[in-house]
Every structure is written in C-alpha cells, then in structure tokens.
Design a protein that fits this description.
218 residues; alpha+beta; 2 domains; eight-stranded antiparallel beta sheet; 16 strands; elongated
Length: 218
C-alpha cells in the first residue's frame, strides 16, 4: 500500500496543523485531564482518517480485452438501460458505483483503448446517489474506443462531500485497462456506459473493487 500523490499536500497540511495544535495545547494547558487527552486523541484520529482517504492498496490488476473492469471501489447503485445524452447519444447500459468516504478513491480505466473524448462540466453537488447527479453535478466525461471500435464512457461525478475531481485522461492518449484515470477526493460516484449487447455480471448493492471486479463481458 502507498499514499496517492493527490493526498500529499492535504496530508502535509494536516500534519502541520496537528503538530501545531498539540504543541499549543501542551504549552497552554498546565493541568491535563481526560478531556484534553480525549481531544488530542480525536485530532490524531481525524488526521489518520484523512491519510486513509488517499491510500492505494497493492493489487494484481485484471487485464482482459473482452472484459469491462470496475473503475472504482464501492457499491453498485445503478444498472439500467439509458440513452447516454452527452457523447454516444444512443441507448446503452449504465452501471454506477457509489464511492463512500471509506472506499479507495482512485479511478481506473475499465478497458484498454484510445481516449477520443474528454469534457469537464461544472455543476451542482447533489448527493451522489441522487438519480440526477449524473447530469447535474460537477463531472468529467471520458470516452475510450477499443481497437475493435467499441466505445465505453466513464463519468466521474462529484457529490455532496467530494468537490474535487482530478482527471488524467487526454484526448488522443492510448490507455491501458487498470491504469489510473483520475481521482475523486473524498469519494462520490463513477458511471460507466457500455454497449447493450454486453453481458452484465453485477447487480445493485454488489460491492466492487477498481481494477479487479468484472462489470461486464463484451
């Protein structure tokens, strides 16, 4: 396991704040009691939780050109037929994964291919499980075309807590299944849009892991 680069600044700032607060408490408080010990422990625990947000566990990632792999850790909240309105503009299957603050927050490419479209949208910060969050919230849409011409869309969506989407995808870039696509700080949601004839392997409430769990087979 290691700490993701997106967490370096936040973790550094958090560490400085914790050191300053504990040092001030130690300097100003002559008579320590259970309350101050409890408060100090709470500050340290909060810092450890923030560090945990940016953890990246070691994994043997799946590589299979016929499989669509989960882009995120979390819980499947949507599996439905829908018309993708932004780029594909055709009916497809949407699979949405909700990322809680407790999940790993890095996002991965679900399949290998060429990035043919990226677009960032400013928007609202509805709860990520809200049905309209996919079209109303702050989001980034990425389309990957495989060497067989299949187009897969990944959409990173910010939620009520997560208000910082990081996307590494660039149009024209060749990408590999399982590589880092981006990062959503403190959780949220990732939508994947796949062809209607794909064989879906997940159901609502299933737990999935980015780079490991198979969402569907082409």
């Amino acid at each position: 396991m290691y700490i993701h680069k997106e967490g370096y600044r936040i973790i550094a700032a958090t560490t400085v704040i914790v050191i300053v607060l504990i040092s001030l408490m130690n300097y100003l408080i002559n008579d320590w009691n259970w309350y101050w010990y409890f408060l100090s422990a709470g500050i340290i625990v909060l810092a450890l939780i923030i560090i945990r947000f940016f953890r990246i566990p070691a994994r043997e990632l799946v590589h299979n050109p016929d499989q669509i792999i989960s882009s995120a850790d979390g819980t499947v909240v949507v599996v439905e037929r829908i018309i993708e309105p932004e780029f594909l503009k055709t009916e497809c299957i949407q699979i949405s994964t909700f990322m809680s603050p407790n999940n790993v927050h890095v996002n991965r490419y679900p399949i290998s291919g060429k990035v043919i479209y990226t677009n960032y949208h400013n928007g609202k910060y509805l709860i990520a499980k809200h049905p309209k969050s996919s079209t109303l919230n702050e989001r980034t849409t990425i389309c990957i075309e495989t060497d067989k011409g299949t187009k897969i869309i990944v959409r990173q969506i910010a939620g009520a807590l997560a208000r910082r989407i990081v996307c590494y995808a660039k149009e024209g870039q060749e990408v590999t299944q399982g590589d880092e696509l981006g990062f959503i700080k403190f959780g949220s949601r990732v939508d994947v849009f796949i062809p209607l004839d794909a064989n879906v392997h997940v159901e609502i409430e299933d737990k999935v892991k980015g780079g490991l769990s198979v969402l569907a087979t082409l």
